[in-house]
Design a protein that fits this description.
The chain is mostly helical and 362 residues long. It has helices at 33-44, 48-56, 61-71, 81-93, 126-131, 134-150, 152-168, 173-205, 208-220, 229-241, 245-255, 263-274, 277-283, 298-315, 319-329, 334-341; strands at residues 73-74, 102-105, 112-115, 121-125. The longest helix is centred in the middle third of the chain and has 33 residues, at 173-205.
């Protein structure tokens, strides 16, 4: 199959090139530290599975499954065979024993998702299928299989349910406020889980340029001859380092309602991980195994998550993050820097002798 070109575990077709396989790999191998710490804590939480099984009765999961079964096309050996082969291959590479059902839904908006409490299901839109080439699509399928392996589908379904519930109780001030607080926290976790799944997509596709192209197309459409991956990554650098404190605040406000990070940020984060020692160790066959998950430490995972956030703040070129670094480092003249950073919120004083000094018409 992917590593030796032979048919295995029911795979009918071989991919066009060889890729490594990761037997028994734990999702901890590719999960972002903030995503991993939350998942480890939830998996260790006594009674967690029981609560969510009870909650599943309130969620429209059965309805969703029936909806996709009745109004979408299920991927199989007879329908969207190339996607079927990619799905089998992705599950083989990440050693996911039970292949989740996959559907193609008619929607011009490029999108994909993995949802479900009892069993994950993968849905991709026609807009995405028509937008991406084979290797780009392979990374997307790997991305969704990564969600399934990590168990993200459970929390994504909860997020969809809570978002719907928030709309229904919007007229209750305190009720809506409480739900929105939970949704905001879930969205922050889910943005990190998307970075994890991007890494899973890279482990499946093993072509970082294809992963980058896919993200670039999601941002700019099917005009590859008009776009450049390196220039796209430069946008992420400009976004991170440009502007003043006002822009930093606007960045936070822009990202809060989103479940996904911005495409340029995802591309930059994936490139950084692809060049890391962690990625190379996985490719060399050194990675945490699934049978070791029960021995993972919640406190160690939280420390790794905190260290990751601290590193992001320290290395960020964003003005607000620089200010936070200075605050923690005790740098001087912070008051002046804050005032200068927020100068953009105030209109500049009129020049002496300028229009402001001209007589006003009555």
């Amino acid at each position: 199959m992917s590593d030796d070109g032979q048919q295995q575990t029911g795979h009918e077709r071989v991919p066009s090139r060889q890729r490594r396989r990761f037997p028994g790999i734990s999702s901890r191998a590719y999960e972002h530290p903030a995503d991993r710490s939350a998942l480890v804590a939830l998996r260790k939480l006594s009674g967690f599975d029981t609560v969510f099984k009870a909650l599943s009765g309130l969620l429209p999961e059965r309805s969703l499954r029936l909806l996709f079964l009745s109004d979408s096309v299920r991927v199989s050996e007879r329908q969207f065979q190339h996607l079927h082969d990619m799905l089998l291959d992705a599950c083989y590479v990440l050693d996911l024993e039970k292949v989740p059902p996959m559907y193609v839904n008619q929607d011009p908006q490029p999108n994909a998702m993995c949802i479900g409490l009892d069993e994950p299901i993968i849905v991709v839109t026609t807009g995405l299928v028509e937008l991406l080439d084979e290797e780009e699509m392979r990374a997307v399928v790997g991305h969704e299989v990564g969600h399934a392996l990590s168990g993200h589908s459970v929390y994504r379904t909860i997020l969809l349910f809570l978002t719907s519930l928030a709309l229904k109780v919007a007229w209750i001030p305190l009720g809506n406020f409480a739900i929105m607080a939970i949704i905001t926290a879930l969205r922050e976790w889910f943005r990190k889980s998307e970075l994890s799944a991007d890494r899973a997509g890279l482990l499946v596709g093993q072509d970082v340029r294809a992963s980058m192209r896919g993200l670039m197309k999601i941002a700019g459409g099917n005009h590859l001859h008009e776009m450049n991956v390196d220039a796209f990554l430069e946008q992420a650098e400009e976004y991170d380092s440009g502007g003043d404190l006002r822009d930093s605040v606007l960045k936070i406000l822009n990202v809060l309602p989103r479940s996904h990070p911005f495409a340029t940020i995802r591309a930059a984060e994936l490139k950084k991980w692809a060049e890391s020692r962690d990625f190379q160790r996985i490719m060399d066959g050194h990675y945490p195994r699934r049978d070791e998950d029960k021995d993972t430490s919640v406190s160690d995972s939280f420390r790794e998550s905190a260290a990751s956030y601290a590193s992001d703040v320290k290395t960020s070129k964003d003005p607000l993050m620089k200010l936070v670094t200075d605050l923690t480092g005790g740098a001087g003249d912070l008051g002046g820097r804050v005032r200068r950073g927020f100068d953009g919120f105030r209109s500049p004083p009129p020049a002496k002798g300028g229009p402001a000094d001209a007589p006003q018409e009555g």
